[in-house]
Amino acid sequence: MNILKGFSNTKEHKNNYFLTITIFVVLSLILTFVIEVIHNNDFTITFNWCLAAPQIFIANFILVLVFTLFLYCICGCIYISSSMSYFILLIVSLASYYKEKFLGDPIFPWDLMLKREGFNIFPLLQEGTGFVILLVVIMVSLVIFLLRFFLPRFRSDYVPRILIGLLAFLILLTVSYIKPKPMRDFLSNAGMGEISWKQDDNYKKNGIMLSFLRNIKNAVISKPSGYTKQNVLAVMNEDIMDESDSNHSTKSPNIIFVMSEAFWDPTLLKSVSFSSDPIPTFRNLQKNYTSGWLLSPQYGGLTANVEFEVLTGNSTSFLPQGAVPYQQFIKEPILSIASILKGQGYYTAAVHSYLGWFWNRNSVYQKMGFDTFISSEAMKKAKHKGYYISDSEVSRQIIDQLENKKQPIFLYAITMQNHGPYDQKRYNTNEIKVNGDISDKSKSILETYVQGLKDADNSLKILVDYVNTFKEPTIIVFFGDHLPLLGDDYSVYKDTGYLSSEKSQEWALEDYKKMRSVPVVIWSNFKQNKKEINNMSDSFLGLYVLKMAGAELPPYFRYVDYVYSILPGFLKELKIDSQGNLHPGDDKDYKKLMDKYWLIEYDKLFGKKLQEND
Length: 614
Hints:
This protein is α/β, with parallel strands linked by helices. The protein has 2 domains: 3-219, no CATH class; 235-605, 3-Layer(aba) Sandwich (Alkaline Phosphatase, subunit A), CATH 3.40.720. 48% of the residues lie in helices and 11% in strands. The protein contains 23 helices and 15 strands. The chain has helices spanning 11-40, 43-52, 54-75, 78-103, 121-125, 130-146, 158-178, 181-189, 199-206, 208-214, 229-239, 280-288, 303-312, 325-328, 337-342, 361-368, 391-404, 440-468, 491-495, 509-514, 541-548, 555-566, 591-605, and strands spanning 254-260, 272-274, 290-295, 347-352, 372-374, 384-385, 388-389, 409-414, 434-436, 474-480, 517-524, 532-537, 569-570, 574-576, 582-584. Strands 5-4-8-1-10-11-3-12 form an 8-stranded mixed sheet, sandwiched between helices. Strands 13-14-15 form a 3-stranded antiparallel sheet. The protein has a two-stranded antiparallel ribbon with strand order 2-9. Helix 1 runs parallel beside helix 4 and helix 2 crosses helix 3 (54-75). It starts with 10 loop residues before the first helix and ends in a 9-residue tail after the last helix.
């Protein structure tokens, strides 16, 4: 059947047919270039990329054309479909640019699942020309839509539209999900090499349309090779740490985790000085109690992924970059330090000074074994400082829980006051001044940030002073979730010379370590041997505290303990061994260990839970 036969055969439409198709193709060609310019925020870089990798640019153009054609087959109008395509893809590229600018990652297919969380990008748009670009996107889409009243067009019957639509859908499906060998060979010959472990480089090399579609399959977690009950149990029996290593406690101390938003030590920025130390309480506790540095899986945001690692002992390194387990994967009860301690007689509570629905915490905390969750909705009279509920209010919520408890308590608290961005309008006055040879904008950002840091330190003092008077043994674990978002594109870190290269794709392993290292202190109101924590991934922190408290470890956490003994630093981009040596994330020397860890983690998260006695 000739699919063109379904188009009108009038002389007028025959004369206009090729002109209309040309407009259709040209609009798609322009759109392909424009979305790359927006995502890269640079015309010259995009133009040079097109010249250096014409096959990849053409592959992206074909996908944009096919996507627009698919929309045409749905609505039946070239100009409506083109305006829809422009609006959708320009918005996606704009969101990707700002997400990478502020969080270090481009947009992923699973970001579409974020629902209300995604609207958090709009306050960030005020930092630059975001709303102007958004207005241009809307205006361009509207202009293309209005062209239907002035330019020639042709009509198609339903049958050819359905056939073309099915063909377009099949092309998009083979690129994004099925990925048959001919398609893989075609893309490989075009120069497309997927960099799944470093998606910002992947998008820059392969283009936003191709990279976005190719990531769709990454949203589906594949079963690891050799996933059988026999292999799972063999790994557990071979590598698990002896349970007798645990120093079980008979007192069951209260355990308080305080994950302080963007808590970090800015005095590491050597080219600047501060009129006073923003974290004197924390620094004093470091001298006498177990303390050191954790490795966060995140920078600037996605706090939920840090929680996920700390609470479950699972590593996000095995999951698709940018994935959010709270949103995507936790659909049933899951082993966590909350459920472990609840099974050992603890009352379990979570406190967060933000909205309970955010990152799906209302549902996830129940599945993790928390008895109660106190979110901002329950803090009706809480004092705000800046944009959010103050950190001191979180300390008061913790104290209230301690005063009213009837059994040992495990409490996981998350603060919000010092969340970025750090514009100069947040507080009436900033008590600490910044000096140094940096821009006024960088000084302003730092002064706002350290004011929030000072308040976080004061909130720690409130909590420690109270627990010092508390008769029951209590442990407080205070740590940062990730480094602060000090300007877009790491601007303050660059301005102060903190990084070896201004381009993140050229960072040395030491830079990755710097940009993921957050401080931690573990204080208690009873005697504990002081220890140094060096390069510990967040996925091992919960295990570490369980052992310190003398809790009984289930088999999975005993296996995590084994991994920790070999690779305490475990990130996607970086591995740090027990001697402190840095290795690239895909180091082949540790592939066997990583494969085993993933096998056990997969079984816990996605598999049949073949591990025994959990």
